[in-house]
Prior knowledge:
This protein is an alpha+beta fold. Helix content is 55%, strand content 11%.
Amino acid sequence: MRRRHCLRLAALALGPALLSTARATPSEEEHRLITALIQRVRGMRTMKFMRNDEAHDADEAAKHLEAKYKHFRKQIVTAEDFIERCATRSEVTGKAYIVQLGDGKPREARAFMLQELRAMRQPQPPKHKG
């Protein structure tokens, strides 16, 4: 009986500490990658970002992604998590985000963002001096 009481007290004392370490956050490297991905979106001047059937420009899209990242950051570990949680669909309607560059074919934002992320992760060839 006394042992059970001690175990309960230990669980109560350690519980919050264990829970706080279980929360996810991106590493510094992944955070930089996520913010660079958002900046890449911001720089796409011909982009239309469709959210719930409303078109938004690149700057509005980036602001929306930043707000969602801030809101869901504790649930995000990788850039892929960010794309899945913040750049795929509306939390309100569940409707997929759509991206269109210039006169190009509209496509789901998830596929577009994953493609951009892959491009960012490709090693850059060394620049030749000369």
